[in-house]
C-alpha cells in the first residue's frame, strides 16, 4: 500500500491492525460471556460451602478453610426436600422417555411417510410456542381436575412433554431426513419389516438427535416451575422449585447458605449432562435443514 492510499479497513485502520482489533474484541466478548455465565454459579457454590453465620456477616471472594463446611447440604436430608427431589427425578425421567419415544415415531412419520398437508401439520406444531406456560397452565388445571390428573406426577409429565415435543419432533424429522432411505431399503430386501427397519437402522443412527432431545426435555422438566406450581397443589407430589418456594412462604426459616446448597444441587445435573454429552449435542443440533 502506498503512502497516499487510504487505509482499507472499516475503522480506518490497515487490514492487519483491524484483524488484531477484531481478535481482541472477540477475546474480550468471550471473557465477558464466561464471567457473566460462570460468576453466579461460582458465587452460589461458594455460599453453599460457607458457614451460614459467615454468610450473614461477610463473604470473601475466595473461600477460606476457617469458614468451609458441608453442613449446609444437611438441609437435603429433610423429608420434604427428599420428597421434592424424588418427584423431580421421576418427572424428569418420565418426560424424557415420553418425549424421545413420541418424537422419534412422529419424526419418522414426517420424514418417511407422505400424507396431505404434511408441511402445514408440522408448522401447526410450533403454534404451541406462541403461548406462555402460565396461559396454558390455567386451562390445563381445569381439564386435569375434571379427568383426575390434577396433583399427579403423570399429569405434569404429560404437560411438560406436550410443551417439549414441538421442537423435538422437528429435530427428529429433520435429522431422520439426513439418513439415506437406502439403508432401510436394504433391510427391507433382507426381509425386515418397516418397524424393524426403523428400530435397527434408523434409531441407532439417531443417537445424537435422541440425546439432544433428551437434554432439551430434561432441562425443561428439571427447571420447571410454572406447570408444577399450578398442576401439583399437594406437597406429596410437588417438585423441587415450587416446593422450596412453599417452604419459604410457610414461614419455614431457610438460611441463605442452605438455599444456595439446594440451588447448587438443582443446577449441577443439567450442567454435567450437557458437559459430558456435548459432542452428541453438537451433532444433534447441527441439522442443516432445521
UniProtKB/TrEMBL annotation:
This is Carbohydrate ABC transporter permease. The chain crosses the membrane at residues 21-42, 84-111, 123-144, 150-173, 209-232, 257-276. Residues 85-277 form the ABC transmembrane type-1 domain. Keywords: Cell membrane, Membrane, Transmembrane, Transmembrane helix, Transport. GO terms for cellular component: plasma membrane. Gene3D superfamilies: MetI-like (1.10.3720.10). Its main location: membrane. One of its GO terms (biological process) is transmembrane transport. CDD domains: TM_PBP2. It is found in: Cell membrane. It is a multi-pass membrane protein. Belongs to the binding-protein-dependent transport system permease family.
